[in-house]
Specification:
18 strands, Serine/threonine-protein phosphatase, six-stranded mixed β-sheet, five-stranded mixed β-sheet, 28 helices, Recoverin, domain 1, iron ion binding, manganese, EF_hand_dom, alpha/beta, hydrolase
Length: 698
């Protein structure tokens, strides 16, 4: 009996270990492909930035057009944005049966919105723009770091990434209750992208933010970024009617006003991504966060004529370091010296003197940060902070950008130190020593972050000093992961609630729900390997070249070990290919692989889904995401169509980079040849078709 029990125990442990290994491999595939996609987006953006830096427009009109195209959102000044997104001029038709909003908002409005969205109704564009206008006005008055106290509510609930999955938000509210004076929420960024209901999530969160401004707090995530939205679907999803362009423009501006972090009881720091060894909360508190519409567009500030002013604020003298240029620089933007204050007995004269002195200081600060008089706005919280701290340090835009990039894009790692996050392409990896240093410096207990999907919805690391919380369940595939939120009371002890929002997950039996059931693993595993095979097929040409490097005699066969090495050298996914081989390659008796027939099998699998030539299909699979992003960048008004003018100016940018001489008539002939239906615009299918024709002609 004992021998039988031990035998069963060994069998069971091997079985569980194999299931866990399959689960981890599946997870690794999903995560590697996701991060590779993010890296592609950053590379694509860097490519366009390089083109912009090395392109010389032939006219001011050309310069303005391209600047508007690639710096979308930054070109709108305050008054222009208000005029462009004028919601008051919109009429709501009598046939509209959806929810209606009136301001100031009441809890009944939020309840009506939730019920309407459950019934798949949409909010009229007039109300959406009105809501965004009021949200932007409120966010501008908030500090960069929100402060929350558990003294005023029973507990604070912290939610992680939602990524457009409205069902998860509904389930959180069902389990935990709606925001109220006694129930505070912190939503830690990444509200949008990937999911199909990003706009609805924004509407719900912004509504509760305006109803309960002291109980609802929103942090910015790395996906609250226009350049990221271009790739991951939010821009396409939000553009649902004729006013979609205005809604997107307003949302871009709202995103840049979102606070960067939240502090609970001065002890728990909540940020979206992470920290670095240079993270400075004092700097983050004073940055003008609205300057960074896209964190991916980190521009170096022009400092040639600003060094003197910066050093003067710091109490330093530039004359000794650079006597030749000091006088010229000082004359550009001298700090105003206040006149002698009049006697306080004459209150009217003294008040006039105070207003004049403050106005002079404001104008000097505007010139210092390159704000022209035409861009004059109301004072915001961050600008007031910067004005009241003129004796403090003044940072360059590059330093400010680095601070925001790190807290939005960074990930923890088990090893000590801090290094560049080459997997994502942005931010850094920070180790336990960096966490300890930052926590001790600011007298914090622990750090809450999101940004990474976790199988259980949450995960501790760095000796339980860093907590990752992720609230989008079934993120990669139904059953791939749970969502979770964390509740903190006055004792700041975290209490977790896990869930799975998808209806298919609810149909599982109790036995299936225990652990990670075999059927569920098989389903998720199948989805992961399908995505991986698509990735392999998309790099067929590169794989053939890599395989031939090991096939010196041109036999068409290589060892399985060489196969694994070659695949990693092409895809750079960091996957355990030898472990994954049984799922990707048929077993061979002699340990050799006929790589050409293997690639043919991959092509056959993809061709069964798409009736397109194999070599062309490879190109489309490899470049479709980039082509979609490029299409959206060129289509700056988000109409779903590229106008002839947009194509004309973009082609001049590309031809300049590639040293191709092409006349305006030649460009016009080219764009007309792509416009197959002759409607005067290029849609996405025509855009892809042009690449297909070029590939076939080659």
């Amino acid at each position: 009996a004992f021998k039988a029990a031990v035998l069963i125990q060994r069998w069971y442990r091997r079985y569980v270990a194999r299931l866990e290994m399959r689960r981890r491999c599946t997870w690794r595939i999903f995560q590697s492909i996701e991060y590779a996609c993010e890296q592609d987006q950053i590379k694509l953006h860097n490519f366009f930035s390089y083109l912009m830096d090395h392109f010389t427009p032939s006219s001011s009109k050309e310069r303005d057009f391209i600047s508007r195209m690639f710096i979308s959102g930054e070109s709108f000044k305050e008054a222009e944005l208000e005029k462009y997104c004028d919601y008051e001029s919109m009429e709501v038709p009598d046939s509209y049966t959806g929810p209606r909003l009136s301001f100031p908002l009441l809890p009944d409005h939020a309840t009506a919105l939730l019920e309407a969205f459950k019934q798949k109704q949409q909010l009229h564009a007039r109300y959406v723009l009105n809501l965004l206008h009021e949200t932007r006005k409120h966010l501008k008055q908030l500090p960069n770091i929100s402060h929350v106290s558990t003294c005023y509510s029973e507990e604070v609930t912290v939610c992680g990434d939602l990524h457009g999955q409205l069902d998860d938000l509904f389930l959180i509210f069902y389990k935990n209750g709606l925001p109220s004076p006694s129930k505070s929420y912190v939503f830690n960024g990444d509200f949008v992208d990937r999911g199909k209901q990003s706009l609805e999530i924004l509407i719900v969160l912004f509504t509760f933010l305006l109803i309960y401004p002291k109980e609802v707090h929103l942090n910015r995530g790395n996906h609250e970024d226009h350049m990221v939205n271009l790739r991951y679907g939010f821009c396409a999803g939000a553009d649902r009617d004729v006013h979609g362009k205005k809604i997107l423009k307003m949302i871009q501006n709202v995103f840049c006003w979102l606070p960067l972090a939240t502090l609970i009881d001065q002890k728990v720091l909540i940020i979206h991504g992470g920290i670095s060894d240079t993270t400075d909360l004092d700097m983050l508190e004073k940055i003008q966060r609205n300057k960074f519409i896209s964190v991916l567009r980190g521009k170096k500030r022009k400092e040639s004529n600003r060094n003197v002013e910066i050093q003067e604020i710091n109490g330093e003298s530039k004359v000794e370091a650079d006597p030749a240029g000091s006088e010229a620089a000082l004359s550009l933007c001298p700090q105003p010296r206040p006149t002698q204050a009049p006697s306080m007995t004459n209150r009217l004269e003294f008040s006039r003197w105070v207003r004049q002195t403050v106005q002079e200081q404001i104008e000097w600060c505007r010139r210092l940060v390159d704000i022209s008089e035409s861009e004059e706005e109301e004072l915001t919280y961050s600008s007031v902070v910067s004005l009241t701290d003129l004796d403090g340090p003044c940072w360059t835009r590059q330093e400010e950008w680095k601070q925001i990039l790190d807290i939005l894009w960074s990930d923890p790692m088990p090893q000590d130190g801090c290094r560049a996050n080459t997997v994502r392409g942005g931010g850094c990896y920070f180790g336990p020593d960096v966490t300890t240093k930052i926590l001790e410096k600011y007298n914090l207990q622990f750090l809450i972050r999101s940004h990474e999907c976790k199988q259980e919805g949450y995960e501790f690391c760095h000796n339980r000093k860093v907590l990752t919380i992720f609230s989008a369940s079934n993120y990669y595939e139904i059953g791939s992961n749970r969502g979770a939120y964390v509740k903190l009371g006055p004792d700041l002890v975290p209490h977790f609630v896990q869930y799975q929002a998808n209806k298919a997950a609810h149909t599982l039996t109790m036995t299936q729900r225990q652990g990670f059931p075999v059927a569920l693993i098989s389903r998720v595993e199948e989805s992961a390997f399908r995505a991986l095979r698509e990735k392999l097929f998309a790099h067929t040409s590169a794989l053939i070249s890599a395989f031939k490097a090991y096939d010196k005699d041109n036999t068409g066969r290589i060892t399985l070990s060489n196969w694994a090495t070659a695949v990693e050298s092409v895809l750079h996914l960091g996957l355990p290919w030898r472990m994954l081989r049984p799922q990707l390659v048929r077993s061979t008796a002699d340990g050799m692989l006929e790589y050409k027939s293997w690639l043919d099998d991959l092509a056959m699998e993809q061709r069964s889904q798409e009736h397109i030539q194999s070599s062309l299909l490879e190109v489309i699979y490899r470049n479709r995401s980039n082509l979609e992003t490029i299409f959206r960048i060129i289509d700056r008004d988000h109409s779903g169509l590229i106008s002839f003018e947009e194509f004309h100016q973009t082609w001049k940018l590309f031809s300049s980079h590639m040293n191709i001489e092409l006349t305006d008539d030649g460009i016009n002939d080219l764009v007309r040849s792509i416009d197959f239906n002759k409607d005067g615009n290029i849609d996405f299918n025509e855009f892809l078709e042009a690449f297909r024709l070029v590939k076939q002609s080659q």
